[in-house]
Write a structure and sequence with these properties.
- The complex is a heterodimer of chains A (113) and B (114).
- With 113 residues, chain A is mostly beta strands.
- Chain B has no helices and eleven strands.
- Classes of the chains: A mainly beta (113), B mainly beta (114).
- At the A-B interface, β4, β5 and β9 of A face β5 and β10 of B.
Chain lengths: 113, 114
C-alpha cells in the first residue's frame, strides 16, 4: 500500500528565504507526482505535475524534483513571500490495479514579513 | 475563470439526519472525484466517476454513503444516516482524463454532525 509522508508538518521562515519542502513515498511504481497548495478554507490548487520519466518541473519561483528510485520529491521555493503561506501537499499516482492519487498530509508553511 | 462549485459550503446537522452535498464540475471535464479531508487521515478518496459512470467507490462506507452523477453538470454525495465521525471537509474535484492530468478542486463542504 502506497504511503506518502511529508516532513516537516509545519515550517516558519522569514520573508526572502529560499526553502525546501520534502515528500517521500514507499512504492516507486508511480505514474506521476503532483504538488498542490491549499489555502485556509479553500480547496487544493495544482502547482506542478512531474511525470515518472521526468526529473524536475519549474514554474516561476517553484521547482519540483523527483527521484523515483529513492522515493523522494522536493519542492523548492525561491525568495519566499508572505503570500506563499499555505499548506503544501504532494500526491502520487500509483501504478497497478486501480489508479489512485495518494496524498501526504501536507506541510504548513508560514512566511513572516 | 472556470471552477468547481460545491454547495453548501457549511452544513451542521444532527446524528441520524440525511446530508446531501452537491458539486458542479468544470464544463467539459469528464472525471469527477469526491475526497474527504480530516486532520487525522488527511485526504481520502471516496469515489471516482468517468463520463458519469462510477469507476471506484471502494473508499466509501457503502451502508451509509452514496455518490451519483445524474447528469454531466451535477455530482451528489449523500450520507444517510449521518454520524459524528462523518464530520470532515468534503471536496469535489474534476479533471480531464483521470488522475494523470491536474485536478481542479472545489472549495469544499464543511460538515459537522452533532
Amino acid at each position: 500500500k502506497q504511503e506518502v509522508t511529508q516532513i516537516p508538518a509545519a515550517l516558519s521562515v522569514p520573508e526572502g528565504e529560499n526553502l525546501v519542502l520534502n515528500c517521500s513515498f514507499t512504492d516507486s511504481a508511480i505514474y506521476n507526482l503532483q504538488w498542490f497548495r491549499q489555502d485556509p478554507g479553500k480547496g487544493l490548487t495544482s502547482l506542478l505535475l512531474i511525470q515518472s520519466s521526468q526529473r524536475e518541473q519549474t514554474s516561476g519561483r517553484l521547482n519540483a524534483s523527483l527521484d523515483k528510485s529513492s522515493g523522494r520529491s522536493t519542492l523548492y521555493i525561491a525568495a519566499s513571500q508572505p503570500g506563499d503561506s499555505a499548506t503544501y501537499l504532494c500526491a502520487v499516482l500509483t501504478q497497478g490495479g486501480s489508479e489512485k492519487l495518494v496524498f501526504g498530509k501536507g506541510t504548513k508553511l508560514t512566511v513572516n514579513p | 475563470d472556470a471552477r468547481v462549485t460545491q454547495t453548501p459550503r457549511h452544513k451542521v446537522t444532527e446524528m441520524g439526519q440525511e446530508v446531501t452535498m452537491r458539486c458542479q464540475p468544470i464544463l467539459g471535464h469528464n472525471t469527477v472525484f469526491w475526497y474527504r479531508q480530516t486532520m487525522m487521515q488527511g485526504l481520502e478518496l471516496l469515489a471516482y466517476f468517468r463520463n458519469r459512470a462510477p469507476l471506484d467507490d471502494s473508499g466509501m462506507p457503502k451502508d451509509r454513503f452514496s455518490a451519483e452523477m445524474p447528469d454531466a453538470t451535477l455530482a451528489t454525495l449523500k450520507i444517510q444516516p449521518s454520524e459524528p465521525r462523518d464530520s470532515a471537509v468534503y471536496f469535489c474535484a474534476s479533471g480531464w482524463g483521470g488522475f494523470a492530468s491536474p485536478l481542479h478542486f472545489g472549495n469544499g463542504t464543511r460538515l459537522t454532525v452533532t
